[in-house]
Amino acid sequence: MSHPGDAAEAAALATAAVAVSLGKSLTVATAESLTAGMVAASLANTPGASGMLQGGVVAYQNSVKASVLGVSTELLDAVGSVDGAVAEAMAEGARRACMADVGISTTGVAGPEPHDGKPVGTVFVGVATGTGTGSFEFSFSGDRQSIRQQACEAALARLLDALEGVGYRS
Question: Which of 30, 59, 72, 136 is the most buried (most CB within 10 A)?
Fold first, then answer.
């Protein structure tokens, strides 16, 4: 039995996401801040990922969120980087930049210090599809690596949910 923050759980979620994505001929792109590529790497570690993973952007700094992903600097200035609307804009930016059916993003505070007034463990996952965009807020506990691993798992789980909810492409 795997536990939250367990690499085996991320691998199982990635395997399922790749299978559903391939089964529906859907492509995926990532935009990651606190996970810094862990979501894309989890997908890429899965056989068959080359048939669905378009690419990903590690947008650790707000300047990259703005210039590469198109997140509004006004939004970043108003709410900081750890926010649901920012996660949504990041996911949309990844989807657009990589020409993917689904964009998934992570932004949050891995610690050890709070960031943008948000406590350690605050994480937002954004999901963008052709039918809309949404975000999910999480509050994780543990050390920096554990929070990053839990955020990766949460993103993969939200990706899997989104893929299962998206219709087949014609």
Answer: 30
